[in-house]
Please model this.
Amino acid sequence: MNIGTSTLLSFLLVLLLSMTTGCTRSSDDPAAGSAVTDTGGSASGDFGPPQGEPIKAVLTSPPDVPPPLNRSHPAKVIVELEVRELEKEISEGVTYTFWTFGGTVPGSFIRIRQGDTVEFHLLNHPDSKMPHNIDLHGVTGPGGGASSTFTAPGHRSQFTFKALNQGLFVYHCATAPVGMHVANGMYGLILVEPPEGLTPVDHEYYVMQGDFYTVGKYREKGLQSFDMQKAIDENPTYVLFNGSEGALVGDKALQAKTGETVRLYVGNGGPNLVSSFHVIGEIFDKVWFEGGTRFQENVQTTLIPSGGAAIAEFRLEVPGSYILVDHSIFRAFNKGALAMLKADGPENKLIYSGKEVDADYLGDKAGSLTAVSEAVMARAQGRLTKEQQISAGKAQYTGTCSVCHQGNGQGLPGVFPPLAKSDFLMANKRRAIETVLNGLSGAVTVNGKQYNSVMPPMSQLTDDEVANILTYAMSSWGNQGAAVSKEEVTQVRATTKRAEGAAE
Ligand SMILES: [Cu+2]
Model:
């Protein structure tokens, strides 16, 4: 067969296929929605005019999801979403002015049914500085609502759409500069349930990833402003679930019991990064990839594009802490893309022998970082005490230094030198700072014993963090040293060269 015939044949095939789908998906046929197409997926469709009294949509803040609709007919649904520009915590002791849909990042979760007619009201709080609008990916029509919803501060706007397609959709602000509005947290999820609803599960949670760009480096304290150049370069300072580092860890972790099934509605607001979404220690029994109609089974990591979503379902067999990460793993451990799901219940040693994942994976995120922010506040007010530095340093020593030098500072014989009663550490403060910032290699003698190994540079830590960690180490386990100040660390950083490949 020559090229000409095969091209012609495939052209005819495509024509034939589009004619068939054209019939089953005819939008003015009320039965179209229930028609099963040969793709195995659902049809888009109009289920006729709304029935009954208008319903006000229940909106929830993350990680909560509105309850299932359990409705068997299309309705008129009223959604009211208010934009607020709010200064909130992005990490312990770090704040950022977020632009939000409903006061949270991600914005309020919206849940409707395929075929519903949605009367959408966008309100922009009078305290806002910026105009905003909304583009809902679940809307059929140019701009997804954006052109009808441009709303100045103190104003409101309204438009109506019919939800023709089922699925899990992202919504976001699309006001220029679009990237900046999205980077400031203006996104959320809208679930369009299939007509028959979704299978009941024990827990439904709302988790959404986003990348953030601040002028200061990761965990640099205080109010941080948006860095346009970093955003253009796609070089985020933070990659986060639910808008702040630690939004879903410790006592804010997602909760479930063994034997229960969890359904995660996971979105990615971007603006730039694609997420490799993974739950450490779990396998997704089902993933409705890209938020669409069909599911894949037995998935380890699912890709969630910027401006996309996925539904992940799994049953919990073994109790413990499960860590949600973007498996582009530096984002999890150095930019904040880490959340937690805690499963309570009896051990199941046949499936897993036990041992907590916390210490292995969480590091300083396992504990509370309250002491850290207290120290930062105290320093800002010029009343930082050595005791506050020690408490803050202890929290940060855990997970940063303790993997090698051990929690009790004893090190490991022949491998990692001790910090406890270390003559090397205590002899020279400047050298101790240099060791942390720039690493140490070659033969060293500590308390009469020789070590010849490599300590990696830790210049990714802020000056505050280095000062607090060293103050803690030099005042613990029998050591009696003076406090190390942030200024001393700044001075050493300025006057020494970073090791090759180390963070700035
Ligand atoms: Cu906006």
User: Anything to note?
Assistant: The radius of gyration is 27 Å. Residues 257 and 344 are 5 Å apart (CA to CA). The first helix runs from residue 3 to 24.
